[in-house]
Amino acid sequence: MPDVPLHARVSERLAAWQAIGADSRTLHVLKHGVPVEFLGDRVPPAFDLPSFPISVQQERWWLETEEPRLLALGAISRVSADMKPDHIVNAFCVPKPGTGVWRLVVNLKRMNVAQKAHKCRYESLRLLRHMGVKGAWAVKVDLADAYYHVPIRPADRRYFCFRFCDRLYQMDALPMGWLNSPYWFTKIMRNVVRFWRDPHSCRRRGGGGVVPPMPPHQFYPSGCSPHRFRGGVRVLPYLDDFLFLFGSEEQARAGARWIKEVIEFVGLSCHPRKCQWEPTQSVQHLGITVNLVEGLFEVPTEKLAKLRRMAIGLRITAKKNRRLVQKRELAKLCGFAQSIKLALLPAQLFLRNLYDDIAQPVGWSGRVRLSRGSLRDLDWWADIPVQHCSAAIHVGPAAVEFSVDASRHSWGAVLNGHTARGFWSEEELGQHINWKELRAVRYALDSFLPWVSQRVVLIREDNTTTQAILGRYSSRSATLHAELKLLWELLQLHSITLQVERVASADNIADAASRLIDRDDYSLDPGVFAMLEERYGPHDVDLFASHLNAHLPCFFSRFYCPGSSGVDALLQPWQGLNAYGCPPTDPQVLLAVVQKVREEQASVTLVVPYWPAQPWWQQLMEMAVDLVFFPSSTALFVSVQPGLRAEFNLPWWQVVAVRVQW
């Protein structure tokens, strides 16, 4: 037990805080306490919440162990019965995992809704991506009873009164559960973090009086005088947890000693069991294993096993009870999975259905019925693929970049001057533009597979919704989420790492490709093609097609598109193939097609207009071995652009199928 309360010990070290360059606001709070601010300066009406029932074991634990400890720490103090505070909340106990003891939770919900909330930017593990961690050595620090180092202003402690075991107490230090505790603690510790990162900052900020401990000689860059430069450390703070990174094991050992000195200098205390003072290259921090040797976030083995057990348990319960499970147990699995999503990238993809079921209007003690999608997702959680249990901390620069865009009728993408594009099918046409933008990304990746497989790919996208969805791999929309899963499967199949960058619509070079109208993008009616296939087939390739109108699995397209075997049929070899084609009716294109058939002596079935006056007609007839004439009817053709059919003039002239056989 400490000789003096924790916050009193820190208050006695104000000179030390001033020496490390703490700002005046921090010094004032450490001396006088944190103020409580109510919305509109209106104090809520008086209330006295009823106590929660507790067990005999919990009462004994409180009276014999926890109450004396918190009193000694200065976290709480007893309130005499004659004081009669206006606001009294209740408290309850929750078990500490794996310890066999409890943690006291003061229920401050009633006070939180009436108080002004302060916001602060926290530094999460994601920041490691920009800190050059691969090959580094780590030291971890966990402060003990961290919040209790910061006092509440004496005049405001009456707002934090609670009853437990028929006794009245008040919080004298920052309480767990108060909405502003994280803000105030982070703001105060920011001064220590600044000193760790730049020890010389204390002089620039006017710190004086006592001299703070400075880093050892291992921190001085070679060739620099220690009087000219004082090297700091790379530190990642998150509330009371701190991860320090060093360039070498020797520097880490020296840095650990200096970090201890600074903590003791300002009056803070460390947790004896949770700190990792011995330098390591594999450290568990904020629930995730940080592998500094390979530069990976990894799911801890014990957490992975627990997650699988929870999923299997829910799956068994659902099978026995007609898909009914406890809502609280389902929420536990989701919360636990969220804690490791940084190392388990597809976690959000397989939680969306579960969260939808949690949203059912049932109390936490009730049961919810799992959807079919949730059952499939639980199967995934019960047997998480090993390859998904780690993620790179830092993804290198993109090897490939392309722009993508979608419009009402079509989509387009541009990569290094190559264009991929296509039209929406009848089913796709009615979808929301955000869905079309997301599907356009998948179509573009599928079209550019030779360039993007096994690479880091940067997508330039002008749709903010698509950018957000790809950034977090989740969407509240069921249709968008289903499309996102299809995209994820494509990424995994071809080992593609995706990065997204937003560009203004005016700067998106794929915008024009997504709005292009191709008046030759029509195809022969499937029934008519089946007749030709029976007569001249089987054909090997559809020469002029797209992924929407191809009659054969192998096809050549005008632009890059999903499934295309080649772009621009006139640049592909035809020799040795039994080809089918319905070429555009541009006379120059038809002339080039006939010339290619002659040069390569290709066996081909061509569906062309009956234009005997054209120069290519006589050349084609010299090679023809059979003709099939069709009536002059637009019913022979089908447009793949359903939204634009009214704008198209489908061929009305007489059409003939010409067979060339060498």
Any descriptors?
RT_dom; 662 residues; seven-stranded mixed beta sheet; alpha/beta; six-stranded mixed beta sheet; Hepadnavirus_pol/RT; 21 helices; 4 domains; HIV Type 1 Reverse Transcriptase, Chain A, domain 1; Nucleotidyltransferase, domain 5; elongated; 21% strand; Rev_trsase/Diguanyl_cyclase; Reverse transcriptase domain-containing protein
Please tell me about this protein's structure.
- InterPro entries: DNA/RNA_pol_sf, Hepadnavirus_pol/RT, Rev_trsase/Diguanyl_cyclase, RT_dom.
- This is Reverse transcriptase domain-containing protein.
- About 2% of the residues have low confidence.
- Helix 9 packs antiparallel against helix 10 and helix 20 packs parallel to helix 21.
- Helices cover 33% and strands 21% of the residues.
- It has 4 domains: 275 residues, HIV Type 1 Reverse Transcriptase, Chain A, domain 1 (Roll); 94 residues; 116 residues, Nucleotidyltransferase, domain 5 (2-Layer Sandwich); 139 residues, Rossmann fold (3-Layer(aba) Sandwich), CATH 3.40.50.150.
- A hairpin with a 2-residue loop joins strand 18 and strand 19.
- The strands form 7 sheets. A 7-stranded mixed sheet has the order 25-24-23-26-27-30-28. Strands 1, 2, 3, 4, 6 and 7 form a 6-stranded mixed sheet that branches. A 5-stranded mixed sheet has the order 19-18-17-20-21.
- It contains 21 helices and 30 strands.
- The longest helix is centred in the middle third of the chain and has 20 residues.
- By secondary structure, it is of the alpha/beta class.
